[in-house]
Design brief:
Elements: E1 11-17, E2 20-30, H1 35-41, H2 47-59, E3 65-75, H3 80-96, E4 100-108, E5 118-129, H4 158-164, H5 167-177, H6 185-195, H7 209-213
Parallel strand pairs: 3-4
Antiparallel strand pairs: 1-2, 2-5, 3-5
Helix pairs in contact: 2-3
Length: 227
Amino acid sequence: RRVPNIGGFAGMFPVTIGGEKVFLVGSTDGVGTKLKLAFMLNKHDTVGIDLVAMCVNDLVTCGATPLFFLDYYATGKLDLTRSKRLLDGVIEGCKRGKMALLGGETAEMPGFYPEGEYDLAGFAVGLVRQKDLIDGSTVRAGDVLVAFPSSGLHSNGFSLVRKAFSPRELRTFAPALITPTRIYVADAEKLRKALGDNVKALAHITGEGLEGNVPRVLPKGMRAVVD
């Protein structure tokens, strides 16, 4: 059956607990082609943070409290040293996202991935009470748009990054570009504590940037003006 918020940053499944209506919130994503930088630099300890960030930053846009995370790691031939670095990043991401790492799956598929390469995906689950739900429906003309600072270019969208730079430039800037995506769980908590119901919408800015993501949380016919 169709559930609320299909097409939003996270999907919501309604349940009733102790007579109160709440939503289980789920989000799934991968690191994307930012992994190409990890392969280039042979640096694998931060992309796990990106993986968690891509999922948990989607969860908090609807006001959800993160609960747990699961990862999926696939490669042609398992490298235990590299796998530990990846897992360390996932664990660090879960700490920053204030969620438990519930488990995951490691898939070894010979001949499927180029030597030395792998893919990462994961999903996060959270919970939000109906009364605490943030869905953008109360946004009105005159409301203020506020931005949190980022740690750099967020993961998802690195196909464009890799196209914009020459191979030489990309290698030069790669150590800075691989900086892991900021996880906004604590920021969202502080914002809700300070402003309460005055927080009307939250957008997670990834691949399509401001132009592609901010309109997703605005009512039909409403636009944002960015200075």
